[in-house]
Amino acid sequence: MKSAPATLLAADEPPPVTVYNEAGASPFLLVADHAGNLLPRALGRLGLAEAELARHIAFDIGIAGVARRLSDALDAVLIRQNYSRLVIDCNRPLDAPSSIAAISERTPIPGNVGVSDTARAARAREIFSPYHARITAELDRRAAAGRATALIALHSFTPVFTGIARPWHAAVLYHRDPRLARRLKPLLEADGEFTVGDNEPYSVSDATDYTIPVHGERRRLPHVLIEIRQDLIAHEEGQRAWAERLARLLPQACSQGSDKD
Ligand SMILES: [Zn+2]
What we know:
By secondary structure, the chain is an alpha/beta fold. The protein starts with 16 loop residues before the first strand and ends with a helix. The radius of gyration is 18 Å and the shape is globular. It contains six helices and eleven strands. The strands form three sheets. A seven-stranded mixed beta sheet has the order 1-3-2-6-11-9-10, sandwiched between helices. Zinc ion (ZN) is lined by residues 33-34, 60, 155.
């Protein structure tokens, strides 16, 4: 068996995490766990054809464009992951079977079969950990400054999964604290006559999620995971429209909360 390299990313490769609008003054902190589809050179293409790497299995199509525009519109800090979820999924606990997925939807990922413990540790150390450490540092900094924060995790989902068409335009996901999700959902529905999933097509759990349980729930921050259907944000026009929509509705959802809570 070939020994795994001690390091994964070469010095000239992009960093795992990018912070956009670092000085943003908004209470919203935007995070995008699946925004990127880069692969470390050392992993080749994980044995996949180029076309597979452009599909939703590799990343959340369209969400990087929405996130950047939303960050601009809200003056919010955005922390985004740059490498493909197929390298290591930054919204999965490290011990979840789907952390380094050997199969995604129906596509086997050859480069993720029989990954050694050393190689697994390198992916965690160089991709997963710096991303979450950056989110932790940002949240610590805000807490120390006594600054209010609402954590918004941005994702997108494929319109057709395993051959089944999905009816939702967008969705709000949550687990222990539904407050922000429950306020945002009717606002989204009213705004565009949208069908908005309530913990569909996915829901948040400790076994299948990392960002909301760890950064949102444990710190008792207001939070929501927002999913947008990928065909709606595949192009710039849709990305702009959804960023503009969320920039209007998220502050409304939060201000409702401060009136009632
Ligand atoms: Zn995602």
